[in-house]
From TrEMBL:
Family named by the database record: Belongs to the plant CAR protein family.
Compartments reported by the entry: Cell membrane; Nucleus
InterPro entries per UniProt: C2_dom, C2_domain_sf, CAR1-11
Gene3D superfamilies reported in the protein's UniProt record: C2 domain
Stretches that traverse the bilayer: 22-42
Calcium is among the record's keywords: yes
This protein's record includes keyword Membrane: yes
Domain C2: 50-164
The name this protein goes by in its record: C2 domain-containing protein
Keywords: Abscisic acid signaling pathway, Calcium, Cell membrane, GTPase activation, Lipid-binding, Membrane, Metal-binding, Nucleus, Transmembrane, Transmembrane helix
Amino acid sequence: MHPPSGCAFLPTPVAHFQSLDLLFSLPITIAATIIIIVVVVTQNNLVQVSNSFGRLTTLYSMEHLHGLLRIHVHRGVNLAKRDVLSSDPYVIVRMGKQKLKTRVVNKNVNPEWNEDLTLSVDDTNLPVKIFVYDRDTFSLDDKMGDAEFQIGPFVEALRMELNGLPSGTIITRVQPNRENCLAEESCIIWTEGKVVQNLVLRLRNVESGEVELQLQWIDIPGSRGL
Ligand SMILES: [Ca+2]
């Protein structure tokens, strides 16, 4: 025997309301909601509006974004041994609340990750922090040192008008000192129409190890830029 039409079991909309007062307040609630949406749209002067709060949130955060920082994690050199003969190293990159990681290279203290990790940058004053770990299967991963750097000099170079310079021109040289983690001079270079920075970081809190990186910048249309 077929059940009767499903609609027959659903209460009518009126049945949801305990009193007629609530029913009469419904049009007022709808009107108030529409007014809130219009006010938000007007204050932010946004063109692309789909009348949803989710869309508005996305546009709002784009206004705070400077762009993307692509970190090419090239390789590790003379990293510490955390297993009997070697280590299984990987790199974690942190900036603010963001956290990215490379793959694990097994049994190699001179690993070549050659991996691009991309951070969104909404504060150019935050340091980028690097952590190297040894992956272990039956215990917690072991620390293999850490380092950090500032992107200030790189951002300054990105703000310069460099079009027309020959490819390979060195724009800035950042020297290693007691305050930073540079193992050697770091060059910011104009190459093939873009700015890159090469970094060799000496790992801290470990007996040995360096990590080689290259920075690139990716502009995002609609973001605040640099
Ligand atoms: Ca291991």
